[in-house]
Amino acid sequence: MTMSDPVADMLTRIRNANIAKHDTVEIPSSKMKKAISEILLEEGYIKGYEIRQDGVKETIHMTLKYGKTKDEKVISGIKKISKPGLRVYANTDNLPKVLGGLGTAIISTSKGVVTDKVARKQNVGGEVIAFIW
Questions:
Q1: Contacting residues for 56 by C-beta, under 8 A, at least 6 apart
Q2: Rounded-to-integer distance, Cα 7 and Cα 50, Å
Q3: Cβ(102)–Cβ(132) under 8 Å?
Q4: Average pLDDT by consecutive 10-residue portion of the chain (133 residues)?
Q5: What is d(CA 58, CA 42) in angstroms, rounded to the nearest whole number?
Q6: Do residues 84 and 72 lie in contact, with contact meaning Cβ atoms separated by under 8 Å?
Q7: DSSP designation for 82
Q8: Half-sphere exposure (Cβ direction) of 35: Cα atoms closer than 13 Å
């Protein structure tokens, strides 16, 4: 069975693992998912990730990050914005700010998948993929 929105599946797996207080989560790999994983790592939402090869199939093995206890979650919310039936685009002037700048918006631009802050610096707009806070 084919998946209609693989990025939404990735975000849902991360959200579910975070709610269930799991240490790690396995996600089928793609270029877009690797780019999103790199952003989550750079912004400090996850401890790390590694690409695992199982024959022909690649998976992303992601290690989630918590505070001193597992009740203190680093990721308090994650939401997919652009969906297959309704793409959401933003130009340079109206790039979204998540929680007044406390969260991160993930934007797919012509210069790659970047955060809203980087997109403002590069003066580019694009498709708003997700919000994370």
A1: none
A2: 17
A3: no
A4: 85 95 94 96 94 92 91 91 94 91 94 94 95 95
A5: 22
A6: no
A7: S
A8: 15
